[in-house]
Design brief:
globular, alpha/beta, about 40% helix, Rossmann fold, about 30% strand, 6-stranded mixed sheet
Amino acid sequence: MSSLSRLRQLLRQRSVKSGDFTLASGRRSRYYIDARLTTMSGEGQVLVGEVCFQAIDEAGWDPRFVGGMTLGADPVAYAVANHATRQGRHLDAFTVRKRSKDHGTGKRIEGGLPPGARVVVVDDTVTSGGSLLGAAEVVARHGAIVAGVLALVDREEGGSELLAAAGYDYRAVFTGRDLR
């Protein structure tokens, strides 16, 4: 079984729930994807790193950093950076905080992301795209170059249109349809 197929299977088994849910966007849904149940598992880390790294490579984005809004993006970014390193490629991760720290250095971005760095902004699940767009905007204001934006799962509820309208090259590994 390919890594992509196994990751799809793992997401279906661990992360897709049926019921009545309120999403972060405020929308109601009959299904919920808690991708962290997959992205934070040992097997999920290996598969997410490989599959997302391959998607980034195939897009030709050639980043030096990968990251996004905490918490959903964190395990995705760390898995991709780990996989890249094991492949002999230099790729570090970063985290965007929801708000700047009110102590210490007051950083909004953790992980040593320098201005001018070429990055891919990631997230685990995208619905309306607001969180992913917000992270990309924070990174761009920081002075980094957003080469691309990648979601592990796109629920196909407006996120891709929002990101495209903002001028970002956006890709998703899976759609909600792929996982139901």
